[in-house]
Amino acid sequence: MEEGEIDEVIALLAEAGAIDDESFARRFAADKRLLAGWGPDRIEVTLQGRGVPREHIEAALSAEDDGALCERATSLLLAREMSCTSERGRERALGLLVRRGFPLEVAYDAVRAAERRLSEAA
To answer: Which ranges of the chain does DSSP label H, i.e. alpha helix?
Structure first.
């Protein structure tokens, strides 16, 4: 297949709605939040690597506010039964969240929230 034919097929697919970066970004972000427990930083980097335009990435990431993001990070720690009651446990929990792509400030807040919940449950 020649380059001109490839461009024509891509144009036809885009016109038919089969190629939609905005929809892809929204679905990808939602799936990674729900199924993989990724934070917005990791989702953003991955979408950028796939060539998704910046405005579509920002729209996909705006679906979750800071409160919901912190709650999701806290729930992730509690579901994994991460101990946040010792310095070592807090460091491990913080590291997990940062590796998953949660912003550092959100990760700190989530570790503190998990620590409070664990203290209240004890």
So the answer is: 3-15, 21-31, 40-49, 54-61, 66-79, 87-100, 104-121
Q: What is the pLDDT of residues 68-97, one digit of tens each?
A: 999 999 999 999 988 888 999 999 999 999
**Residue among 23, 19, 65, 28 nearest 47 (CA):** 28
User: Cα torsion at 113, 114, 115, 117 (round to 10°)?
Assistant: 90
Please say whether the beta carbons of 70 and 102 come within 8 A.
no
Residue 101 neighbours by CB under 8 Å, 6+ apart: 38, 39, 40, 41, 42, 43, 44, 45
Decide if 11 contacts 1 (C-beta within 8 A).
Answer: no
